[in-house]
Amino acid sequence: MRKRFRLLLYICFILGTVASSIAAMPLEVLASPDDIRKDNVASSQEQLAYSLGVQAYIYGYPLVVMEQTRQMALKTRAPLNQFYYSSMLASQQYHDIVTPNSNTLYFSAWLDLSKGPVVLNVPANKDDRYYTVQMIDAYTNTFRNVSNRTTENKAGQFTIVGPGRSSDINKASIHAPTPIVWLLGRVQVNGKEDLNHAVAFEKQFTLSTPTSNPSSGITDGSSSNQMSSMKNDPFAFYKIMTEQIRQNPPPACDAVLLDQFKLIGIDPAKGFESADLNAATKAGLLRAAKDAQRIIANSVKSIPTANGWYIGHDIGTYGTQFLLRAVVAYSGLGANVPEEELYARAFVDQNGEKLHGKQRYVLHFNKNDLPQVTGFWSLTLYDSDFYLVDNAIGRYSIGDLTKGLLYNPDGSLDLYIQQSAPEGKESNWLPAPPGDFNLVLRMFAPKPSMLEGEYEVPPVARIQ
Q1: Chain segment 340-374, per-residue pLDDT in tens
Q2: Which of 58, 192, 251, 294 qualifies as a FRET site for 302, CA 20 to 30 Å off?
Q3: The listed CATH number (2.60.120.600, 2.60.120.10, 3.40.50.720, 3.40.50.300) that belongs to domain 309-462
Q4: Residue in 292, 305, 390 with CA at minimum distance from that of residue 347
Q5: Which CATH class is domain 81-214?
């Protein structure tokens, strides 16, 4: 199934290849001389800009979202190369990222490795508390996790080095694919009474710069100004995308695609200037941006599922799966690799009908169907914008960390998802909003058996 999905994800890119093959055929096979004379050069230019523009928008979307997130964090959270620590679990007010979890504290930092390395200092973990520091490049690929799984709860120092650079500090350095890196940390919280202990542990994760690491051109205000103009300048997206590619060169395998983008003014070596484009190319790019946005948004719900659930075995690192990369940036920016955190998402019930608060649902796990993890698992509810939903009891997720969770005598488990509390089953209730919603099942540090592609989440059943 995943192989078929990869084919679907690349259909827009395959179409471009097919078009090139057709173009090599004799003209008389495709059109008569009269048709050719009637052809409009400007129309052809617009179509070319549209075709390449859709591909460029999908390719560049994660870069722009990452830069947008970075600029906001630098303004409101912490300077470069410094951690920002959250002291509260995510609630409905938390909009730093889409699809946040409410079982871990988040701490994060944006690194600029263009002038030198940064050292991550990790504390000893005497309580065997789940944690991870996820390292994400500018293209949203996760290239490393430093977690209790990988450190075996020992203290350590990890030197993070930019591309093309070496470090004399630590021969076992972590080499980042791009100069800009997002460190996204998560620390397990075992209920409200554990919050202060978790915060104290979280703040033991620190960063240091062993050499002078001044700000570079990457950190100037140009991107911030461009972000501010995105609402008024319809071409700002392409300009930001081009600049981010220049600052964070992609893998060599992407060169064949980037060479095509030069035909529509997207050239990292020269920058993107809409004023240099003709009217037809501008029109094609504007049309492409609108349609590409719809393609990304609609693709979220068109991913193949089992029992109504999509399980993210292929996310976290994307290679050339550019549409999947954009879809995850849109609906779950910062998603981790399955070895560290396996995700499953559902928008529909067992009948294929969208989840809605006017209905009542139950998610039944047989004893052998419960997620097998060395960390913990949780089920979280989100609104149609992928944010947490306010509710009367302040419960945003439910799982094996939930105090008082009741299992059935045979070891199975029923979770109730509805607006009103199920009488006598309040301990197993996940409150739902009045409108549309979706669910995410997170499995932190899943056991190897969960990664083999055989596990299926039970369907969300409507209660009649």
Answers
A1: 999 999 999 999 999 999 999 999 999 999 999 99
A2: 251
A3: 2.60.120.600
A4: 305
A5: mainly beta
